[in-house]
Amino acid sequence: WCREHNIEPDAIMGMDVIEHIYRLDQFFEQLPGVQQARPRMLFTTASNPCNPLKCYRLRRVMRSDEKGGDGHPGFYALRLQHLTKRWGFPDKKARRWARHTRGLDYNDIDRAVKEGILPEPADRYNTCDPLNGNWTERILPLSAYRELLETHRYGLSVENGWFNSGHTGIKRPAAQLLNRLNLRSCAPFLILTAEPIHRQR
Q1: Mean pLDDT of the chain
Q2: pTM (predicted TM-score)
């Protein structure tokens, strides 16, 4: 829409989006104005790699998506079916490849099969829907965001999110205390702000 209307945005914001995007390198390359207008970017993500409790809960969801249930096949089963039906892999080989292609969509799985190179997942938990590449709350180290943005001449700053202190009962003082402490290891979400390097002071 921006390209069709010749619009270069001054800012791009996304809430709970960045952790689901399959290829962030392509995402930043294709965002309107990133290479020319250099818009500011701000993203929030609940996939806080510094919060052990949050990581535990998100990885539990990832394991559930891999396994499937309630009549829905898991991502592992979808990859296994694809490798068996499309490529005719025997059972043992298909299972091995299904484990190693965790976090890949069907296009990248097919590419790996054609090249004959068994992939090695970058993370033992992160997983995505092989049909569309949508990640299940992917947890990335902050250094990965920083390095990726630097290739596009952006600098990254990270702020801790806060807890809702509008609760009643014991939750309210607990949230207020955690907000005062402002520890990244407790933050329920992070705010990622990307500024073009030539604008940074």
Answers
A1: 93
A2: 0.90
